[in-house]
Amino acid sequence: MKYIYVKFFFLNEKIEPKYYNYYIFTTQKNNIDMKNIVLASILIGFSVFFSSCSKDGKINVFSVQDDIALGAQLDSTIVNTPQEYPLLPRKGNEEVYNYVEGMMNTILTSENINYKDEFVWQVRIINQDVLNAFAAPGGYIYFYTGFLKYAESEAELAGVMAHEIAHADHRHSTNRLTKLYGFQMLFSILLGKNPSQLAQIAGQLAMGGSSLAFSRNDEYEADASSVKYLTDVQNMRNYEPTAIVDFFDRMQDDSLTQADGSFEFLRTHPYDANRKENIYDIWEDLGSPEGEKFIAEHQAIISKLP
Known about the structure:
The chain is mainly α. It folds into two domains: 2-52, no CATH class; 64-302, no CATH class. Helix content is 50%, strand content 11%. The chain is built from 13 helices and five strands. A three-stranded mixed β-sheet has the order 3-5-4. A two-stranded antiparallel ribbon has the order 1-2.
């Protein structure tokens, strides 16, 4: 009996090279059956690959720890590039930070969030008059002050935040980045070998690059989860679960009358009548729960922004 030694390369939870070693045996005395080797290699590869299944049953070539590590690197890039991403100082803006962080923490009590304990879940505010918000892998969420001001109610903002939390929790970003940049490129970034590409990805996320637009199914899933999250937490904060429709309707209408480039959020979150219908369908399935918009409360906080 002979055997051949096979080695597979993946990344482990610490973002270090990890090799999976296997011995494939053959009963032939004088040669090795290459067909059996190829077949066995494929099966082994799939067994390792499928170990990166998400909690929602989807396949993602990245592990959860990979998501967190990539998000941490993107966050570091943003924090250390203040000329491009001027973060709103926490000192002097404590009420604003308490508002958005309290909103996030309330949403995270939903039982429908898969990675509430594994992901980092932090929110940063970028002090620019830009109509965009985005989530990096691993639970890193960003809002521009221009976006916070554009929302007319707390429930609208909560709907959008829940939507971004859903993108992170369903791991849409790493799926999208993998399709755009490929496994090898993203793995090199995780290993710290491609800082320029990391900066480019941060810019794409922050400025709403159309190449990173979420798929229609991603948007439907994030919308559905947003409604579910807000319904789950109504005992803590009685948000109107469908207020995100008001936000998107207004943004879509305004985008038709204002200069191109003003609505970066719509480039990565394409909106249409089907999405609105999907939101209301989910809401009706949940029993059509009603809530409040908290307009005055939101405006009181927003008035404190510079």
